[in-house]
Amino acid sequence: MRYHRSGCPINLTLEAFGDRWCLIILRDMMFGGRPRSFRSLLAGNLEGIATNILADRLHRMVANGLLVRAGDEGHKQRVIYRLTAKSIELVPLMAVLGSWGMRHSTASDALSVRSRLLELGGPEIWIEFMNELGHIHLGLPKPKSSPLEQMQASIESAQA
After folding, report:
1. How many CB atoms lie within 10 A of CB 49?
2. What are phi and psi of 43, to 5 degrees?
């Protein structure tokens, strides 16, 4: 049996993540648009996560049911990580964290595009995004709209 510091739901949630790196990995998985390999997570991480930290957090997140780990059919030595339904339910938390960060920090305009879209779209787009992630990571039916495509178009528009 695992020891918990308290039964407080906020504490238990934070214990499931472990630290900021787990949230950053979830961010990269959610907004990455596809299941990810260790190498793609490492290469695509803006914050420069160390390989040993990434390996440890991926192991922890699999153990806590936030990610699933499976072999890549196209490459026998590669492992692919997918979000679980449990982690997809964190989209509203990510949206609120992004909104808070835009208001109370010196967030980059270019890196705030996704957060701004989630903030403006509110719970309706959060549900659409969760449905799209369910399609990508869990094999659920394809939703009618694609928030990931909207985010990508917003990013391209901001860069132009």
Report:
1. 18
2. -70, -35
pLDDT digits (tens, 9 = 90+) for 20-64: 999 999 999 999 989 999 999 999 899 999 999 999 999 999 999
Per residue in 68-77, pLDDT (tens digit) is: 999 877 777 8
Q: Distance from CA of residue 30 to its chain's centroid?
A: 3
Residue 34 to residue 21: CA distance in whole angstroms:
19
Look at residues 133, 3, 114 and name the one whose alpha carbon lies nearest to residue 67. 133
Closest CA to 51 of 63, 41, 36: 41
The neighbour count for residue 57, using CB atoms within 10 Å, is 24
List of domains in the chain: 1-83 (1.10.10.10), 89-160 (no CATH)
CA dihedral 106, 115, 62, 12 (to 10 degrees): 70
Beta strands in 8-156 (DSSP E): 36-37, 67-72, 75-83
Cα 21–Cα 25–Cα 27 angle in degrees, nearest 5: 115
Maximal CA-CA distance, the chain? 53
Which pair of structure tokens corresponds to residue 138? 């869990």
Residues written for the chain: 160
